[in-house]
Amino acid sequence: MAINKNHEFEELDGVKCAIVEKNASPERVAFLKNILEQNRYTVVVVASPPPKAAPAPKPVEARPDDSVGRGEAPAAPVETPAPPSTFTVGVTDVTFNPTNAIFGRLLKTKSGQVVTLAYWKQEEQSSDDTIPYFAEDEIISKWK
User: Fold this and answer.
1) What are phi and psi of 16, to 5 degrees?
2) Which residue in 74, 23, 73, 65 sits closest to 47, CA to CA?
3) Between these two residues, 2 and 82, which has the higher pLDDT value?
4) Could you give the CA distance from residue 138 to residue 119 in angstroms, rounded to a whole number?
C-alpha cells in the first residue's frame, strides 16, 4: 500500500509494479507504453476491474389493486450499457513515480526532448520545452 496517492504500487499479473495510470483508454495505454519503453522501463498492462455496480432494487410485492397483480406484464428492467474497457498501466520498477519522472525531467521522447507535463497529458503534439520567453532581437536592440 502506498503512503500517498502519488506513489502507488500493486501486483499486476503476478508482478509487483509501480502504478503509472489507472482507468486508461486503449489509445492512452499505447501512448504511455511507447514513452515508458523508450525510457527502458518494463511496462505491464492489465484490464481494469469493472466499476462496482449499484445494488439491484428490491422487487415490490404486488398488491391486489396494482396493474401487475391483474395479469398485466411488469415493466422490462432497464439494461445498463457495458462500461468502456479501461486498463491499468504499471512499470516493474517500483521506485518509479510519474510525478517525479515528469517534473524531474527524467523521461525523454524518441527525438530526445524532455517530456513535459503538457506532453504527458497529451495536450500538445511535441515536447519542445525551449519556449523563448523573450525575443532576442528586442533585447539586443535595447542595449545598442
Assistant:
1) -70, 125
2) 23
3) 82
4) 30
Report pLDDT digits (tens) over 4-33: 677 788 999 999 999 999 999 999 999 999
The amino acid occupying position 91 is V
Q: How far apart are the first and last CA of the chain?
A: 61
Higher pLDDT, 32 or 130: 32
Break the chain into its structural domains and give their ranges: 9-51+84-143
CA distances from 29 to 36, 47, 103, 132 (A): 10, 11, 21, 32
Cα separations in angstroms, 16 against 87, 92, 123, 131, 133: 16, 6, 30, 39, 43
pLDDT tens-digit map of 84-99:
689 999 999 999 999 9
